Amino acid sequence: MTIEIKAPTFPESIADGTVAAWHKRPGEHAARDEVLAEIETDKVVLEIVAPADGTLKEVLRAEGDTVLSEEVIAIFVEGAGAAGTPTRSSDDSAPASTETEKAAEVAKTGVSAGPAARKLAQEKSIDLAKVDGTGRAGRVTKADVVKATESRRESQPAKAQAAPASKSAEVASAGERAERRVPMTRLRASIAKRLVEAQRTAAMLTTFNEVDMSSVMALRSRYKDEFERRHNGTKLGFMSFFVRASVEALKRFPAVNASIDGSDIVYHGYYDIGVAVSSDRGLVVPVVKDADSLSLAQIEDHIREYGTKAREGKLTIEDMSGGTFTISNGGVFGSLLSTPILNPPQTGILGMHKIEQRPIALDGEVVIRPMMYLALSYDHRLIDGQEAVRFLVTIKELLEEPARIMLDL
What we know:
- This protein has about 400 residues and is of the alpha+beta class.
- The chain is about 35% helix and about 25% strand.
- The chain contains eleven helices and 19 strands.
- The strands form five sheets. Strands 9, 12, 15, 16, 17, 18 and 19 form a seven-stranded mixed β-sheet that branches. A four-stranded antiparallel β-sheet has the order 1-8-6-3, with no helix packed on it. Strands 5-4-2-7 form a four-stranded antiparallel β-sheet.
């Protein structure tokens, strides 16, 4: 039976998408729910899976083509080739061609790897010959390329520090001024557009403060092992404290939890907190919905799940939808101070930064404390300066005395 493969149904906020990759070629067999293609939108990458066991007969939209909601992008034949036809798993671990074709592939390139693995390796400038394959017969899988990319990222700072002179000499001896031009992804283009729009349309200002993290760190150190045992392996991090403190502050200052719609102010009676996450495709902001009703453990679970999804490119449109306030943590990358940019149509965003041991004056004495700079960017069209300052001071007070969060003080 012939089946039309269609693009997903996009929500109203997404006009169209782009075919990012085909994981199957015409004539290749696919098992039910195996990934056929990826559609990249302005927010997320969506997977198109096989509706049944069968064969991809024809591809109607090539990689890079723009597709509309529910547009037919391929023709699939159910049951064709199901018997005796070699299949390939979604991680490329099983062969996708006959032994003859596979041998020809290895003879030509010296490496056995699937299309998805080769495409990712090309995007990340990874030499497949240097990647250890974990698939059948040493075949390089997409997961192997992801691992190689992460290993290279971790080793680059050490290499740069260990041998700066040799690297400079290598560049000088080559005598080349290399350039590489690649098209901007839809997600990257969307991020750029939204950031420029935020600066153009909002009267954006930023206020700063600092918080003594001693109490939160002591609480975390004292209870982290018991917390992990009690909550089935969930680790107690800092972000859950910031989410809870933000929610309590938002309850006291509703304008920071509001948005502007034309000439109207929309006050939200719920607290959906966006948590900015960095991924290989760019910055994404999944949303912890109804954060006011969640425990610290539940918040940590949501954030951990979103982080994993972001790294694997599995975030859904539902994960990214909504949001009344955003928290961005540049401190994980070592940022000491920065000015976060609003995430429209929200009117506030909190920037966390690196915790550093610094001397401060306390009760007339100079002491060393783990301090963090906080930054609140806000839309001055709706939020007055004094309101923004008081909001940030409230977060500071709640974090310096975490019991206030639990006692609703």
